Amino acid sequence: MLKRTPTGTWLPAWVPESTLTLSFLLMFCSIVQSATGGYDGSMLNGLNILPVYTDYFQLNPATTGLNTASVFIGCTFGTLVSGVLTDRLGRRPAIFWSSVITLVGVAIQTAAQNIAMFVIGRIILGLGSAISGVSSGVFLSEAFPSRWRAWGVGLLNDFYYVGALIAAGITLGTGQWQSTWAWRLPSLIQGIFSILCIVILPFVPESPRWLVHEGYYEYARTSVAQTNSNGDILDPVAVAVYKEILDTLEWEKKEGRTMSPKEIVKTPTARKRLLIGMSAGPFSCIAGNIIASYYLGAELETAGITNSTDQLKANVVLNVWCLACALTGTHLAASWGRKPTALISQILLIICLFVIGGLSKMYADDPANASGSLIYGDVAVMFLFQGFYSIAWTPLLYLYPPEVFSVRTPNSYSIRANGLAFSALMLNLLACVFVYIMPIGLNNIGWRMYMVNGSWDIVIAVLIAVFWVETKGKTLEEIDAIFEGEKHSSVPDVERVRTGQVTLDVGAIEQQLQVEIGVKYS
User: Fold this and answer.
1) CA pair distance 314, 200, nearest whole angstrom
2) How far is residue 251's CA from residue 486's CA, in Å, rounded to a whole number?
3) Which residues contact 350 (CB under 8 A, 6 or more apart)?
4) Cβ atoms of 480 and 299 closer than 8 Å
5) Each residue of 376-424: pLDDT tens digit?
6) Cross-strand pairs, 4
7) What is the pTM of this model?
8) Cα distances (Å, whole numbers) of residue 351 to 215, 422, 458, 468
9) CA–CA separation, 200 vs 417, rounded Å?
10) CA distance 51 to 10
11) Distance of alpha carbon 430 from its chain centroid, rounded?
């Protein structure tokens, strides 16, 4: 049964009573950016293999890089405004408008008559995708129940491979067409995820933390109950979560914290949190997956797989493999923790890159006499690399930053959206460069690109081991103890209440809430 729920914005909501059902809807309405991004990478992988696409635009390595990387130009601009828009409009309206912008970009890209039109369409697509990525990541981290947050927010980026798999299958199917619809149809279908998001948004509530910050206390309490206790506002878990949010945001306001982007660098603690939280974006970008994500054809050619149909089939298999690994990684992040999962995966990536570089060199030295075992061994390690990447960076890219930025000391609510936007900005700036230079680098230095990439991955592994902190199993309000050793609420940790380790006096908390809310309204 659906319940009409106030949202504090122009976008209404009719929310299901079941928290489990609502959790699925929250997740699906937030996957638009990752699924669109995954679809985009896999689609361009397929299109860059298709002669009908490369011949239509008369592409060379430089223009291939431009066509592919232009989406990150839009992403860069999008991240500059996404934090501010997400805070001012509300989480759900920001997701809505970003989906509309993405659809406009998809339409222009599909109708492109030349490189300029194709690039403009992709820039607009990237703009909408970046705003959606920040707003949906913040929304899901704030609204999803803490006990399922690793799965809920981790799956947010796992859907990258759902989109990628769909695109791989579509480009394989249209790959034999001789008309421009061989690449226009895959481009058109890219908008399906934005449409799905727009359809689901009216059935999920607004973020309770945003509602409290805006002064909609009763709306926020309803939202907390819907996302934690099947709508029961007197459930101990719902009461504990709501009290934590209220106490912590009230503390921030008393401290004079604002929604300004300057808050992310205002204090030493904020700067420390910014550097740790934003690192996931750049680390995931330069780990080495860009080669396989956008230029699989060129990568396979370095291993001796040159037939375009075989490359398209490999694209399909690769995305099935990566999806399975991403789901495994989400489970590991929830059970092992975020830091161990990232560190082990990064070490495996380093090993794979050096092995790929060595095998590719052996093929490049004497391609005519290369054995089948050498070729397929190289391809197998490439697949292992992408799998190891998917285990850590696919779920952690949108799980770890909002958790770190959620820390409440001294000004976490005010920096969460802007902090996540800054992380995405760093990712997209690097992606603009790396997606553009990769085809040029592979064309000019071949196997040496893997060696260069493996070398800087060693630095990343060291930084993770030294500086990352563990956030597993904590609510957004409880992570502050990692940085400051205290939290700004008198209620026990939510997980202890949920598991029965602590009994919460709901009546006493209710009296406190009535007094506090009464003071705020007076």
Assistant:
1) 33
2) 13
3) 454, 457, 458, 461
4) no
5) 787 888 889 989 999 999 888 877 887 787 544 334 455 566 677 777 7
6) 14
7) 0.77
8) 52, 30, 10, 21
9) 22
10) 47
11) 16
